[in-house]
Structures are given as C-alpha cells and as structure tokens.
C-alpha cells in the first residue's frame, strides 16, 4: 500500500510500504479521511520523543472495514487502545488507562491506505455522512471531553459562563463551537494567526481577537480553555481568568513556565489538565458533527494523501489558515 | 496598650502604642490568644509587599469583647473583612470578595492587647474552651475549606482517598487531622524538619517522612495537599500525584517554577488553588476543635506576647519544632 511515512525531522514521504497485518481481534480498515493533528506536527518537528521515525503518523481516521463483523461499513477509529480491565477503564475514565496506546505513536497510524485496529475500537459512521466531517470526531471529542470536565466542577452552568478559548486550531475552534452548542453566549477566541481568526469568525463562534495586539475590555473569564498549552498562553490564561474561575488546559505546545501559582492560590483558581476522550465522548462527538450541532464544518481543508508532504510543510511554515487539514488516501 | 509591632525586615518590637479606635459597627476586643501564621513570617522576612512596616501583624485571634452586644464574651475573630454585597459574598464564596481585607495586612492586626473588628466578624467561643485552642480555628478553617473544595471535585470520597500532605506546619498538620476526621485512612505527611515530623507523628496523623531522604514506595496519591507552596513542593506534588488525581495548593512560599503542565495535561491532573475560608468554614472548624475531632492539640506552643520577638526569631532560625506558636497578651 501507499503511506505517508515520517522519515526524519521535518520530512514525511509518500511511498510504498507493506500493508499492516491485523492481529487477533483486529480488522483492516481502508482509510478514507485522516486529519493532521497538532501532535503529528509536534512529532514532525522532532519534538516528540515518543514518536520515532520511520513511523506512519495519524490517528484522526475514518474508513471502510475490509474485514470483521462490520465489513463494508464506514467506521470511525477510536485511536486510543486501552486495556478495558483496569480501575480507570472500568470507572469511566479509560483515557487514563496506564496501558493505553495511541495509533501513530508507537504503532503505525492512519496516514496510509490501510490501518489495522481492534474491532472494539470502531464506531459506525452514518452512511450519509461525509467521511471528512467524520474525521473531525477525534478533535471534537477532545474538546467535548474537556468541556464535560469543566462543567462537572464549575460553579455555574456553561450557558451562564463567560468563556475564552485560546487558540483557533481545530480543538480550540471545536471547543468554542461546543460551548455555543451548550448555550454559552459569551465566547471570545484569542488567536494570533489572522487567517485562523477569519476562519473562526466565519464559523461564527463569537468575538475573535489577536491577544498580542488587543486585550479584552474586561478580562475576567469564568472559564479559559487553553488549546495551545505554551508558556505564553498559560501566563495569559492565569492573567485573564476571574477569581474563583477555571482554566482548562488541553494543549501540549511546551512545558515552559507561565503558570502563576501565586495568583491561582490567592484567587482560588482551578486548573484542569485534560487528555483525549473516552469512547463515549467519541460517540457523542460524532453525533454532534452529524446532526449539525457544531455548524457547517466548511472550514476543513481537504487534500489527497499523496500531497501530504506539502500539507505538513504548509502547516510548519504557517501558510495554512484552515484550522484542520484532512488527508484523503482515495483522493479528495 | 502594648503591641508587638513589625518595624523592619526581621524586626518586631513589643512596645506601647495607642489603642485602636473602633469605627462604626466595630467593637474592641481584648486579645487572649493569637497564632503566628506563615504569612506573618513571610512579612517579617520582608517578602510581602502588602504588609508594610510599621504594622501590627496577626490575624489568628481570640479575645473578650469589651463592647457591643457580645460584651464580656469570648469571641473568635473572623479576620477576613468582606463586603457582604457582591456576587461572591452572596454566592457562598465570600473569600473571593474583591473588596476583601485581612486584619494585620493593611490594617492593624491582633499581636496586641486590643484589636478593633466589626461585630459581624465575631463568632462565639464556648466558655469552657481554651482560647489558645480556639486561636487555631483560622488555620483549621484554611485546611477544612481546602478539603471541602477537594471533596467537591474528587472522583472518590475522602474516606477512600490515598492522600499526601506536604508540610507539617499548622495548616498541613490540620489538613492531615481533618482528613483523618473525615475517615481517610491512608494519609502520608512529607516534612523536612525532624522536629515537626515528630510533632506530627505524636499527633497521630499517619506516616511521616522526609521527602529529601525517602520516597514513598508507591507514589500515586489521589490527593496531594501542598501546604508549603514553593517551587520544590509543587514539582514534588506534580510528580507523586496519580493520573486523574488532584493537587490542592494552599501554601504561598514562592512563585517559582515547579509546575509540570505537561504531566498535568497528559495525566489529566487537576490543581486547585485555595484561599482562606468562609465564615461557615470558621464556625465548622471551631466546633471540630472544640469537640476533639482534630485531636488533643497539645502540639501548640504557648508564649507570652511580650516574648514575641524571640518567637519570630526562633521560627526564622528553624529552632521551633512546634507546628504553631500562639502568643498570649495576658501571659500564657
């Protein structure tokens, strides 16, 4: 089969490679659509010690089952492989499973014509749904999971929350769209890239601004979602959250400073780190994407997998304003 | 009257000063017992820009009302002055009141024979209760407030929680004693000062160890309470908390690095900053201290106020193993 292989820092190559061999309980999926995640870019930059080249990256994938009990059906891949047996898996927090693995990290991912995955990691995609839209389920679930954690501990419901989302990539944008879906009417989005601000504005998420140029009039958000996760955005989040408020930290850009422990304590602010999603979060997200709760999704950019190297380079160089590029092995 | 006045960095002087003049709604209190707080020591070291000498420090106080409707009765002082009108005050989170003031910070505190305070900041102390024990209410309320916030968002009840308290000063020790009171059976306490470890062990809070010399066998605490709040303790907290767990940050030692945003995110850890207490937390704490729920309290060291300068110096030099020194203006 053909695959886009991460071969060295800042290098991915589209080339022939053996098809994966499904292990017991696994099936083969013919990939239809697979999104490029920030973590794929992180690896491509050579910043992720867990993703060692040569490796097929990619974990936001939808495809057609070539074997197993769903043969012929369109399926969403839950890329997080968990044991199903530990206290976390049994306790509804499978994303914390100590044995978890992600495809495209230490095992082959989905930037390929085919990928192998356990049957129990598949979720049926409605037959009428565009696979490219369905490929957005993974980042949407990341956002929806984070909001679920936020709502669980907030002092007021989301529909009475003044919220700031930092970062207009797909997770940030989907967090803002999910907030809107949950009745939140005061949503600001901070993004330094003007093309991404335009995309977010077009998606209608609220007020978009450049945090390097402008400061919101009353920087006192009950909820701040940091979908970037860098030293600068953490410092900004600590600054603009209101006393007693909540910072939800999804991004993993860097582990630099920026966290203001003194303000967090004196102003009784809570910080939640959130990681991925559960199987249920994926099911919820797929449904929301399908029923239009998260809008038209026309901000996705589709490209053929064979042009993947160009897509990675465009993202690296900041030439791409779209919050998400989805690669299609069968052509777009 | 006589008062212990913070006059310069590392200097407090016991000397004559005019008695305070109660404003409208305030009464005069004859101070019986007042604890030395870590924040008083922080000011004494010259590290608190909010506490400018000359100033009477001290806010953990109990005394006899010399005027007002409680005249002659023993009263606990709620040292946090809040507006009672804002959304936070009305919403049960008065500790977040944007207009809040603390006695001994920008207005005179209680290291004195007399202090003025609003009548509504007084809580009656049972007549049979030792004022020195009652003076522990403020740090106990800080600990109990923090546990209340922890319990609100934990995934399991406190009695099924494996907890670590960092710091064996009064707030840390009272947090450990409160955890025990709430049915928690697995409590470790990390403290570098051997005299404080002995005091904590004598108080019977669980396993006490020196985190610089020894590491707990299985460092996977669902709950870590950082009652120190320094770069080192934050780093330690981030390291030993289990995935999906909770760090409660009470201490304000320094604002250095130590926070591991990457681990917090990848392991979905929550961090709550907690600040002081509400009036209700003080009432609860006084009751718990009175009914013995927090043990015998014989670890308190009593000294006369006139020897306050020595007490500050002993604490500064690390010569004092007692988790709390309470000063008594009327002699001990």
Description of the structure:
- Two copies of one chain form a homodimer.
- By secondary structure, chain A is an alpha/beta fold.
- Helices cover 27% and strands 26% of the residues of chain A.
- Chain A is built from ten helices and 17 strands.
- In chain A, strands 3, 4, 5, 8, 9, 16 and 17 form a seven-stranded mixed β-sheet that branches.
- In chain A, strand 13 (221-226), helix 7 and strand 14 form a beta-alpha-beta unit.
- In chain A, helix 4 crosses helix 5 and helix 4 packs across helix 9.
- The longest helix of chain A is centred in the middle third of the chain and has 17 residues, at 137-153.
- The relative contact order of chain A is 0.17.
- The model of chain A has no long low-confidence stretch (mean pLDDT 96).
Radius of gyration of chain A: 19 Å
The quaternary organization reads as homodimer
Give the strand content of chain A. Answer: 25-35%
Number of strands of chain A: 17
Number of helices of chain A: 10
First-last Cα distance of chain A: 18 Å
């Amino acid at each position: 089969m053909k695959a886009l292989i991460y071969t060295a820092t800042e290098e991915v190559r589209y080339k022939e490679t053996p098809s994966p061999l499904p292990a017991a309980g696994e099936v083969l999926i013919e990939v239809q659509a697979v999104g490029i995640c920030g973590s794929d870019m992180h690896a491509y930059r050579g910043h992720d010690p867990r993703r060692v080249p040569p490796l097929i990256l990619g974990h936001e994938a939808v495809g057609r089952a070539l074997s197993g009990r769903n043969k012929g059906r369109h399926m969403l891949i839950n890329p997080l492989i968990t044991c199903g047996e530990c206290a976390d898996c049994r306790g509804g927090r499978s994303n914390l499973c100590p044995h978890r693995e992600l495809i495209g990290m230490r095992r082959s991912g989905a930037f390929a014509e085919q990928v192998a995955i356990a049957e129990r990691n598949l979720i049926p995609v409605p037959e009428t749904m565009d696979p490219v839209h369905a490929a957005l389920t993974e980042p949407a679930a990341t956002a929806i999971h984070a909001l679920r954690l936020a709502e669980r501990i907030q002092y007021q419901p989301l529909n009475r929350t003044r919220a700031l989302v930092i970062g207009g990539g797909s997770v940030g944008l989907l967090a803002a769209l999910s907030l809107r879906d949950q009745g939140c009417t005061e949503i600001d989005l901070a993004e330094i890239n003007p093309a991404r601000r335009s995309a977010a504005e077009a998606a209608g998420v609220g007020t978009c601004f450049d945090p390097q140029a402008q400061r919101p009039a009353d920087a006192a958000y009950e909820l701040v979602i940091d979908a970037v996760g860098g030293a600068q955005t953490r410092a900004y989040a600590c600054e603009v959250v209101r006393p007693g408020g909540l910072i939800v930290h999804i991004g993993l850009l860097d582990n630099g400073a920026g966290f203001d422990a003194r303000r967090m304590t004196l102003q009784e602010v809570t910080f939640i780190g959130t990681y991925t999603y559960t199987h249920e979060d994926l099911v919820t997200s797929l449904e929301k994407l399908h029923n239009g709760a998260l809008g038209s999704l026309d901000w996705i950019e589709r490209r053929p997998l064979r042009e993947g190297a160009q897509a990675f380079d465009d993202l690296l160089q900041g030439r791409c304003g779209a919050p998400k590029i989805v690669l299609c092995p069968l052509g777009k």
